[in-house]
Hints:
By secondary structure, the chain is low in regular secondary structure. Among the domains are: 2-67, no CATH class; 314-360, Wheat Germ Agglutinin (Isolectin 2), domain 1 (2-Layer Sandwich), CATH 3.30.60; 513-565, Wheat Germ Agglutinin (Isolectin 2), domain 1, CATH 3.30.60. The chain has helices at 2-5, 10-16, 64-67, 127-130, 180-183, 234-237, 340-343, 445-448, 495-498, 550-553; strands spanning 31-32, 44-45, 53-54, 60-61, 116-117, 123-124, 169-170, 176-177, 223-224, 230-231, 276-277, 283-284, 329-330, 336-337, 382-383, 389-390, 434-435, 441-442, 484-485, 491-492, 515-516, 528-529, 539-540, 546-547. The strands form twelve sheets. The chain has a two-stranded parallel sheet with strand order 1-2. Strands 3-4 form a two-stranded antiparallel sheet. A hairpin with a 5-residue loop joins strand 15 (382-383) and strand 16. The radius of gyration is 33 Å and the shape is flat. The model is unreliable at 1-22 and 80-84 (pLDDT under 50).
Amino acid sequence: MKAAGLFWFLPALIAAQSLTTATLSPWQTGEVTPDGTCGGSTGFVCSPVWGACCSKDGKCGRSSKFCGEGCQSIAGNCNAAAPAPEVPLGPGSVSPDGSCGGTNKFVCDGSAFGGCCSTQGWCGNSTAHCGNNCTPDFGTCGPPSNITFDGECGPVNGKICPGSGFGDCCSSAGWCGDKDDFCGAGCQSGFGNCTLTDGANISTDGSCGKNGKTCKGSKWGDCCSADGYCGKTDDFCAVAGCQPKFGVCAAETDVSTDGFCGKNGKTCKGSTYGDCCSAQGYCGKTTHCDAGCQPSFGTCKADSDKVSTDGRCGSFNGKTCKGSTFGDCCSVGGWCGDKKDHCDAGCQSKFGTCNSEASNISTDGFCGKNGKTCKGSTYGDCCSAQGYCGKTTHCDAGCQPAYGTCKADSSNVSTDGSCGKNGKTCKGSTFGDCCSQHGYCGNGDDFCRIGCQLAYGLCTGISADSECGSRNGKTCAGSGLGNCCSSNGFCGSTASHCGQGCQKGASSGCLTKDIPSLDSTCGSKVGLTCAGGPFNGQCCGSTGFCGTTSTHCGTGCQKGFGRCN
Length: 565
């Protein structure tokens, strides 16, 4: 860890060596910070990734706030002389502190915090930063996502929890988390994982019941007695008072003796009140056996357990709204009702009644291959060649008229195998769906990979949503989104995409010289310049770092890798 972390200051070490062995400063021999904290009890030293100076507050940075008064020389390079005035920051400057957009209008591209700017005004690389709520004016954005960015989930906003960073379980109240309150009772499995087990609740000392512990699976026995102890003999399992909520009880003790059933663990089968347990938890033999009847606690009429009794339906719990008291339509979010929101777009026809064709309208922006149409969707009425709903270029060449509205000439499918320059698309042609770089339709690698024209058909391996390289193996070359794949895995044509970290295997435009530095390292040893990137206008010092002090711009300043005095 330390050996790898110290590699960044080798240029400084080499420059400092003479005929005699040089004495290294403490900040040159310590363990490099993994999170930007330094000095004090942490024992960490700063690096160019966070900034070489360690402030009096124990944070790494590169401005006078960090390198000036109180700078901890034992944990960072404070420079002997006071730093010269910093280059003024303003709109369009690379974020120095992780904030973006807003009043400062800082951008995230090239920052150490991540290339995407969230609507909350913070740089990062997570779905919350790069997904639906990303602000493209201040960073790189990824494709749309249904993963929550603020921790809220469920049918209200249609967002899911897995991958959000808040926790994978969506609680009954509509918030993501990973504790019992989120993953236990009421957890919405349609919007996350509900994998909470009872392992933590198994008794480890033989006591049960009042302390919330269960005997099921304990080494003392599976039954919890009336006195709150685990065991496996009749004294625990067969006597009146055995607690079924906290273990296993003999069958005869489960029969209701007071007409109540279900939640209390009692069954109506064999009771004097009737064999059916109603949705409200009462034993009987009339309406108790119809919709909402609880088959786990008695006898029910056929299919009665399939009708929703709480208003939830569809893929959420497999319940149908047909015949429920809430309405016959099951909405896209899994709620029963009879309003337009329930019966139109996204209505789940397998779990109730839907307005004609409403269930085929796209609710997530995807169309075509999945059988969904864009006509009437909130994304736009046109279905693009790539299968996305929209209302701009989605309506042009390649637009799929079978799944939405298209411009009058959009059904311009090639009839002779030629494509591209003549405006013809291969999507849907008899020759193949890919338009090669030479302007011919086909389906093999010669047509669908290198040089494939994405605007006139389908392409294999070419990014269609700006993601590339290490993210999904797609290339940016020929994508129309920029020919460079950034270190974060997004297509573009800026210095942040084509410069330092550009993924050559997924790009055709990576810079090979005059590459702007993104982390302040520079000079002949690393082949990076301070010019043209986030450190534009700064000097490349003899130690191989960009800056504006006399140490950087004076004696030893590396000409050709930034300005020099």
